[in-house]
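step=predict obj=START-like domain-containing protein n=127
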Amino acid sequence: MSEKKKFTIEYEIKSSPRILYTFLSEPNGLSQWFADDVNFRDQSYTFTWDDGEQQKAKLVTAKENKLVRFKWVDDEPQCYFEMEILQDELTNDVALGITDFATEDAIGERKLIWDNQIQYLISVLGA
């Protein structure tokens, strides 16, 4: 099994950090773009997709209106995925930085998945 590598991508989002944060941190917000159904119980999130796939993740870091970091329960110890709200101090432009892990041969595919998910998030936000 090849080792997973960290990668980051950034997307411009026309939204306030406060509104964007609710879509990144709350089950109701996440279920509108990230997964088809999201439940929170016993300090863990259960993400369910239409194809029946389910994954559990723990929220390991949350900084209000700034950042959320999740760790898949069944993933390697050093791996996580993080969504960070970045705001330019001069222009107030908002971007969403994604940090994730994938094997070298899967990074391209994982980036495409994020591209699609973030485009969907942007349409849900009406941004």
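step=describe
Strands lie at 4-12, 37-41, 44-48, 54-63, 67-72, 81-87, 94-103.
step=end
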